[in-house]
């Protein structure tokens, strides 16, 4: 269980990542990105998670660059997009990401999706970046157990993290157990299920019990499970509230009740549905180009 906003998780290679960070998916307006990150830094956030497909790496880099926070105190992550997978393409894409962010190295670099027949070659390039100390930790996103098992056959370095859709409707319990066995951290994206739980009566009752907001209950649930969580908000009020998750605790009964909300429902693509995933993500990328 995480007990403070400043707490950090020790990854399997020794790198330390904050449990709670800011994600910037779908935030591409310069004013929103700059304002959100400036406030987040002011409130104590030190972890920022972006991706090449988000089309905002440059904005994130500029916002962070304007701060007086020491680079070593920050944890900056990005992700390799599907169209950039493959050994040579990864190395080129990584250079673009560094340039966009205005940094000399990344704290973490992830494979965004397990693109069939490509991700093992992509991982080989990422291992090179890791060995050359261009990135402090390498990991994956949206990998299921069978993707990881396939990767392990050829990998020399185990992923430090698997960042997957996780929320009370989709707690990823089996995958969590597998990741724990393998010494890989569990990271959560879409931790609030895109608002699907905001009107849930169980969550609402627990929120009233503790005198907090519904989203705080859900994020606290993630913290109780020691999950590295990326929360997205351009609201300064909400960003500040997210730092106050440690003013209350969920008891065993709260956790049991939330655990019973599991339905298996996803709010994003299933990593096994490759054709749908590629089509939907390309459409999404076009929307934000």
TrEMBL record:
Organism: Listeria grandensis FSL F6-0971
InterPro entries hit by this protein: AKR, NAD(P)_OxRdtase_dom_sf, NADP_OxRdtase_dom
Annotated binding of substrate, by residue: 112
Protein name, UniProt field: Oxidoreductase, aldo/keto reductase family protein
Coiled-coil zones: none
Family, as annotated: Belongs to the aldo/keto reductase family.
UniProt xrefs under Pfam families: Aldo_ket_red (PF00248)
Domain NADP-dependent oxidoreductase: 22-261
Gene3D superfamilies on file: NADP-dependent oxidoreductase domain (3.20.20.100)
Domain of life: Bacteria
Active site residues according to the UniProt entry: 54 (proton donor)
Site keyed Lowers pKa of active site Tyr: positions: 79
């Amino acid at each position: 269980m995480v007990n403070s906003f400043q707490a950090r998780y020790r990854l399997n290679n020794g790198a330390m990542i904050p449990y709670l960070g800011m994600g910037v998916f779908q935030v591409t307006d310069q004013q929103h990105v700059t304002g959100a990150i400036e406030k987040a830094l002011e409130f104590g956030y030190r972890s920022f998670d972006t991706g090449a497909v988000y089309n905002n790496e440059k904005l994130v880099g500029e916002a962070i660059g304007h701060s007086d926070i020491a680079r070593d105190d920050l944890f900056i992550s990005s992700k390799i997009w599907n169209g950039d997978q493959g050994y040579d393409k990864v190395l080129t894409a990584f250079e673009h990401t560094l340039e966009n962010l205005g940094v000399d190295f990344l704290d973490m670099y992830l494979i965004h999706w397990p693109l069939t027949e490509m991700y093992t070659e992509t991982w080989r390039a990422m291992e090179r970046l890791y060995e050359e100390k261009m990135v402090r930790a390498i990991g994956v996103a949206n990998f299921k157990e069978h993707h990881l098992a396939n990767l392990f056959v050829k990998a020399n370095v185990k992923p430090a993290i698997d960042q997957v859709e996780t929320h009370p409707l989709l707690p990823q319990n089996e995958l969590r157990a597998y990741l724990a066995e393998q010494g890989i951290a569990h990271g959560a994206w879409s931790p609030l299920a895109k608002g699907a739980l905001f009107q849930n009566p169980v969550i609402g009752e627990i929120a009233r019990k503790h005198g907090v907001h519904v989203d705080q209950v859900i994020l606290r649930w993630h913290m109780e499970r020691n999950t590295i969580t990326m929360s997205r908000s351009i609201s300064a009020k909400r960003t500040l509230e997210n730092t106050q998750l440690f003013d209350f605790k969920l008891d065993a009964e709260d956790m049991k009740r939330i655990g019973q909300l599991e339905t298996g429902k996803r709010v994003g693509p299933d990593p096994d549905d490759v054709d749908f995933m590629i089509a939907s993500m390309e459409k999404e990328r076009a929307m934000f180009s």
